[in-house]
């Protein structure tokens, strides 16, 4: 299906002006991303706190109902680590959405299959055709890592093996899901920078164009 941008216009004292291409609203984009990542961060912290409370309550119950010498296993924080994995998947989705929106902004029309999301390589090629090189945007390395980790989490049969390769560990036995905790905190900082820098690059190379309608 071919996607086409809606025609925009505005009116001033001298009449109608057709907006051929507008500017990307950097301030609004930054605010929306900041809000979404703040919510993701709060979700991760709330999950960690809630799971600790559940564990503490279970520990008290076991102590009351069992012999004092019974061993209590250390908490693994499974819910918390699942929340971290979910956040990485969500960050990847946010990146995909902005890639698609930015391509639509600088391209008059393009054909994609709407039954599936355009791939990262598709978007990278489209940007390159428009003289925008993703590999030169700040935070690009983290964006590539997020994409690979997300793919491992969604599709791999043996996730520890594929994630250990993505994270360049010596062996899949070295993989611990807690590694992703430090990763996600880094991504929370770098994703907003990447998207803002990409938007600024597009505005610089594709400034707004307006035409007065006679």
Question: What does this molecule look like?
Answer:
The chain is 61% helix and 10% strand. The protein is elongated. A hairpin with a 2-residue loop joins β2 (8-12) and β3. The chain has 214 residues and is mainly α.
SSE layout:
Layout (H helix, E strand, L loop, with lengths): L1 E3 L3 E5 L2 E7 L4 H40 L12 H29 L2 E3 L8 H10 L10 H16 L3 H8 L12 H27 L3 E4 L2
Antiparallel strand pairs: 1-4, 2-3, 3-5
Helix pairs in contact: 1-2, 1-6, 2-3, 2-4, 2-6, 4-5, 4-6
What is the end-to-end distance? 33 Å
Shape: elongated
Q: What is the count of helical runs?
A: 6
What percent strand? 5-15%
Question: What are the low-pLDDT stretches, counting only 5+ consecutive residues below 50?
Answer: none
- Give the beta-strand count: 5
Radius of gyration: 23 Å
Q: Indicate the percent of residues in helices.
A: 55-70%
Mean pLDDT: 82
Give, in order, the helices and strands: EEEHHEHHHHE
Looking across the biggest beta sheet, what order are the strands in?
A: 2-3-5
Largest sheet: 3 strands, antiparallel
Class derived from helix and strand content = mainly alpha
């Amino acid at each position: 299906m071919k996607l086409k941008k809606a025609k925009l216009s505005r009116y001033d004292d001298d009449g109608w002006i057709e907006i051929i291409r507008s500017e990307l609203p950097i301030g609004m984009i930054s605010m929306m991303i900041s809000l979404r990542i703040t919510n993701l961060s709060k979700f991760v912290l709330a999950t960690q706190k809630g799971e600790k409370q559940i564990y503490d309550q279970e520990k008290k119950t076991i102590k009351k109902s069992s012999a004092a010498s019974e061993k209590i296993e250390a908490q693994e924080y499974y819910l918390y680590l699942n929340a971290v994995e979910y956040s990485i998947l969500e960050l990847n989705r946010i990146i995909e959405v902005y890639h698609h929106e930015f391509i639509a902004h600088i391209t008059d029309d393009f054909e994609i299959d709407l039954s599936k999301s355009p791939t990262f390589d598709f978007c990278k090629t489209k940007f390159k055709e428009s003289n925008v090189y993703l590999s030169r945007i700040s935070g690009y390395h983290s964006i590539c890592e997020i994409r690979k980790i997300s793919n491992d989490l969604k599709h791999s049969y043996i996730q520890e093996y594929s994630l250990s390769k993505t994270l360049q560990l010596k062996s899949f036995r070295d993989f611990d899901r807690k590694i992703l905790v430090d990763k996600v905190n880094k991504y929370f900082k770098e994703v907003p920078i990447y998207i803002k820098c990409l938007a600024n690059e597009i505005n610089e190379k594709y400034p707004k164009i307006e035409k007065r309608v006679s």
